[in-house]
Amino acid sequence: MRTLHIQRYLITGLLTVVPLWITFLVFRFIASLLAQFGAPLIGAAFHALSTVFPGAAALFAEQWLISAIGFAATLLALYLIGWISNRVFGQRILAGLDALMERIPLVQSVYSGTKKLMAMLQNKPNGTQRVVLIDFPSPELKTIGFVTRVFADASGREMASVYVPTTPNPTGGYLEIVPVDKLTATDWSVDQAMAFVLSVGAVAPDAPFPATSPVPPRGE
Fold first, then answer.
1. Best-predicted range by mean pLDDT among 35-39, 175-179, 207-211?
2. Model confidence over 118-132: pLDDT tens digits?
3. Helix 2-52 with 63-85: angle, nearest 10 deg
4. Which pLDDT tens digit goes with each residue over 131-147?
5. CB-CB contact of 42 with 77 (8 Å)
6. Bridge partner list, 177
7. Topology given in CATH for the domain delimited by 125-198
8. Which residues pair with 135 in a beta bridge?
9. How far apart are CA 94 and CA 88, in angstroms?
10. What are phi and psi of 127, to 5 degrees?
11. Domain boundaries, the chain
């Protein structure tokens, strides 16, 4: 009896800790990425301040402080960029930046492709849902995918370009060309699907995949 109690408590503890641990890992991964953007600038500023305030040189050399302020500075910078982008003068600056990037060889293809992907993820494609399930990597398994385009092949059959992100880092993934009638619809938003991917499946709506019927072809 005592052994059963120990097993039950261990399992309960494990089930309690694992979601928290996965959430922590995902948050740490995202925070480290954001901190890396601002850390070099903050480190350089701290190095300059340490010459002015030599008594605080040890504090300015602390890596955790540089990372924390770099993380906060990156969030502030992203907020300011978003705010500026919604103003007329910000839109003019972005238009000029776009024109400049379009003139740089190699950079142009990467920049324009990434920008188009971000724009497509913000808008629902015609005739189908954005977040779907597809048979991948085998017919017996399902995985989350994002429809980026719907088109017709030479025979007139409707096909979909589906981006399948990896977890927990969705910046890498696979591009699959799937017949529209092979897609399984979901009611998930892009934000919900991304949270599911980033959390390795730990964060999901209360009713996962409520719509399990195939995506109907356009015109139906």
1. 175-179
2. 666 665 555 456 788
3. 80
4. 889 998 888 888 989 88
5. no
6. 161
7. SH3 type barrels. (2.30.30)
8. 142
9. 10
10. 90, 0
11. 2-83, 87-121, 125-198
